């Protein structure tokens, strides 16, 4: 990077000679951030890659030994880990699917002029402003079988949505949908408001049906931003820890991130938990990559 | 849209407004439940059927902020009934929860709340500051491997926190950053930085380069042009980015749980730790949650006009 190529002005000009050179400014602005992210993200990752081949335990001062791929082999052969992945997959599909449908649906409703639009939009964002841990805690009260308002309204009497093994995961997903649909709504609104109005006017002149207008104009133009919402929410849902950890202690709600936390900070099996972390990381990267490829396709259309 | 509307469209609009109202009720009911429980007498927090209308009181907040005294004599019901509302705040049911005369001892909550404020504000300032500079660098100068670098920056956000948490915990323990404010500030800055760079690049790309060129011709240096021309133009973007960084840092739970235990603990891990076994006082937890929501709600409300723009990531502008 010896030569700085300026794309705004001639480096031989008078302006470039005054004060810091553009090369200096570029380096001073960019390099600290990149270094910072390397130290606090890449460095730890290399560390944990190292640990994943050992039987190291962070809370004991005993010597550790290199065990090669044993951690990975054992994890991948462990039926219980796969159960955690299946739970996570179910959770991601239900909660992200719900958020996309509800969030986009609300955005369609809000995408018109009506009184207090700004206030209504801000109020609807309140759920995502709360800490997931605190949300989890409070929904325990809402779901309570004996005096929770949800059971009362649904007439469920003493059926515990959270304590029943079959419904617990969906109860957690519903809370997640409540919390994060506003995020999808916000992104969708940004997308909807960017659709050029003249397209709708043209469609109206052609007497196009509203279904046709929706599927041929609205949807294709909003698709890229819906994909971005999908990528972010899938990534986040796959890593969900706090909400489920606080809300429920059922074995049927043990998401992979919770399993990871237990392995690392309750059983102090640092080596094995690092290996599991890597398996999760590779999965997230793979899923994100598929999405990003698809996003680029959607954008090209 | 000054176009003439058909009666069908008007009817559809009415239906949509009703639907928006229904959505509002469903989404805000849990928030209302938190807020109202924070002002309930303890006995009304867990009644069947759930209590909707009640005489609000401030007792939960007094309990949240102070260490309660062990049992004192119950107060005479008539004295209690005659007391004004600000005095009722120190009674739970009919019992005094603060000592008379002595200055009350504070509970850990104010400390945790202050920690949250210090850590969230500082890390937001760092993340937005560094992110703005870096975004400017990427936006205005040619950088070798720009696309790869930007993807690397984004990828730091894809990792599950627990993946980074194990080695971070060991690193922090080795250098003594465990359970310190600085430790959490650094972590949250790292966490928000990728987001901040991506958002800010979208905003700065939109500011015409001609503005700076004109300033340079007028004799400004590049730095002066950046501070006097670009930064004011990017103010909207900076505000939106700050809202998102603040929300994330304010609410973070996993790292705070793992990396802190007393000195630097923030409120998100603290509030759930107050759930006792069996006799949980939900009014106190609701009061803590309600207060915790306030700063971020106010902050968001003040900057609400920038949010829509902020969320589009430059994805649809081209």
Please explain how this structure is put together.
Chain A is mainly α and 301 residues long. Helix content of chain A is 72%, strand content 0%. Chain A contains 14 helices and no strands. Chain A is globular and about 75 Å long. In chain A, 42% of the residues are buried. Chain B is mainly alpha-helical. Helix content of chain B is 66%, strand content 1%. Chain B has 15 helices and two strands. Chain B has helices spanning 7-37, 59-65, 77-82, 85-88, 109-140, 146-155, 161-175, 181-206, 209-217, 222-233, 235-251, 254-259, 267-273, 282-302, 304-310; strands at 91-92, 95-96. In chain B, strands 1-2 form a two-stranded antiparallel sheet. The longest helix of chain B is centred in the middle third of the chain and has 32 residues, at 109-140. Chain B starts with 6 loop residues before the first helix and ends in an 8-residue tail after the last helix. At the A-B interface, helix 2, helix 4, helix 5, helix 6 and helix 7 of A face helix 1, helix 5, helix 6, helix 7 and helix 8 of B.
SSE topology sketch:
The complex is a heterodimer of chains A (301) and B (318).
Chain A lengths: L13 H4 L4 H30 L18 H8 L1 H32 L6 H8 L1 H4 L2 H12 L5 H6 L13 H26 L3 H9 L4 H29 L3 H6 L8 H11 L3 H31 L1
Chain B lengths: L6 H31 L21 H7 L11 H6 L2 H4 L2 E2 L2 E2 L12 H32 L5 H10 L5 H15 L5 H26 L2 H9 L4 H12 L1 H17 L2 H6 L7 H7 L8 H21 L1 H7 L8
Antiparallel strand pairs in B: 1-2
Helix pairs in contact in B: 1-14, 2-14, 5-8, 5-11, 6-8, 8-11, 9-10, 11-15
InterPro entries (chain B): BP-dep_ABC_trans_perm (IPR050901), MetI-like (IPR000515), MetI-like_sf (IPR035906)
Pfam families (chain B): BPD_transp_1
Subcellular location (chain B): Cell membrane
What can be said about this structure in brief?
Chain A is mostly helical and 301 residues long. Chain A has helices at 14-17, 22-51, 70-77, 79-110, 117-124, 126-129, 132-143, 149-154, 168-193, 197-205, 210-238, 242-247, 256-266, 270-300. In chain B, strands 1-2 form a two-stranded antiparallel ribbon.
């Amino acid at each position: 990077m010896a030569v700085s190529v300026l794309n705004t002005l001639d480096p031989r000009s008078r302006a470039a000679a005054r004060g810091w050179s553009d090369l200096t400014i570029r380096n001073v602005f960019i390099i600290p951030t990149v270094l910072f992210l390397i130290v606090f993200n890449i460095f730890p990752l290399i560390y944990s890659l190292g640990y994943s081949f050992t039987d190291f335990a962070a809370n004991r001062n005993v010597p550790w030994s290199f065990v090669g791929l044993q951690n990975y082999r054992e994890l991948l052969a462990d039926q219980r880990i796969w159960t955690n992945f299946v739970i996570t997959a179910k959770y991601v599909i239900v909660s992200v699917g719900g958020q996309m449908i509800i969030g986009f649906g609300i955005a369609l409703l809000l995408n018109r002029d009506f009184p207090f639009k700004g206030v209504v939009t801000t109020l609807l964002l309140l759920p995502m402003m709360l800490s997931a841990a605190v949300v989890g805690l409070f929904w325990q009260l809402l779901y309570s079988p004996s005096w929770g308002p949800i059971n009362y309204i649904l007439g469920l009497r003493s059926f515990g949505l959270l304590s029943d093994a079959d419904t617990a995961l969906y109860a957690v997903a519903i809370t997640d949908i409540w919390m994060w649909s506003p995020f999808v709504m916000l992104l969708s609104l940004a997308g909807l408001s960017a659709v050029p109005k003249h397209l709708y006017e043209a469609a109206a002149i052609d007497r196009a049906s509203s279904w046709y207008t929706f599927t041929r104009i609205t949807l294709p133009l909003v698709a890229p931003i819906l994909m971005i919402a999908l990528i972010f929410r899938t990534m986040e849902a796959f890593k969900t820890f706090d909400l489920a950890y606080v809300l429920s202690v059922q074995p049927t709600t043990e998401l992979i991130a919770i399993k990871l936390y237990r392995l690392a900070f309750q059983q102090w099996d640092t080596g094995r938990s690092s290996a599991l972390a890597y398996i999760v990381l590779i999965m997230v990267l793979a899923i994100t990559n598929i999405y990003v490829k698809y996003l680029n396709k959607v954008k090209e259309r | 849209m000054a176009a003439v509307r058909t009666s069908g469209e008007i009817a559809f609009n009415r239906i949509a407004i009703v639907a928006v109202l229904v959505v509002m009720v469903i989404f805000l009911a849990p928030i209302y439940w938190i807020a109202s429980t924070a002002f309930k007498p303890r006995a009304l927090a867990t009644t069947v059927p759930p209590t909707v209308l009640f005489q609000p009181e401030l007792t939960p907040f007094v309990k949240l902020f102070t260490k309660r005294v062990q049992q004192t004599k119950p107060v005479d019901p008539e004295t209690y009934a005659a007391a004004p509302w600000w005095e009722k705040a120190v009674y739970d049911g009919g019992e005094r929860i603060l000592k008379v005369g002595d200055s009350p001892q504070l509970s850990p909550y104010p400390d945790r709340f202050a920690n949250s404020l210090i850590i969230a504000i500082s890390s937001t300032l760092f993340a937005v500051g560094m992110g703005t500079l870096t975004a400017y660098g990427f936006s205005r100068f040619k950088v070798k491997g720009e696309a790869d670098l930007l993807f690397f920056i984004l990828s730091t956000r894809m990792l599950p926190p627990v993946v980074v948490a194990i080695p971070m915990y060991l690193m922090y323990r080795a250098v003594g950053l465990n359970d310190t404010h600085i430790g959490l500030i650094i972590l949250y800055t790292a966490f928000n930085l990728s987001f901040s760079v991506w958002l800010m690049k979208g905003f700065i790309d939109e500011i015409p380069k001609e503005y700076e060129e004109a300033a340079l011709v007028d004799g400004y240096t590049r730095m002066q042009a950046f501070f006097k021309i670009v930064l004011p133009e990017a103010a909207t973007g900076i505000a939106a980015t700050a809202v998102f960084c603040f929300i994330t840092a304010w609410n973070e739970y996993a790292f705070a749980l793992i990396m802190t235990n007393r000195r630097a603990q923030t409120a998100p891990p603290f509030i759930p730790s107050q759930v006792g076994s069996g006799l949980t006082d939900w009014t106190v937890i609701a009061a803590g949650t309600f207060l915790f929501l306030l700063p971020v709600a106010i902050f968001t409300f003040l900057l609400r006009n920038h949010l829509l723009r902020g969320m589009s990531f430059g994805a649809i502008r081209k």
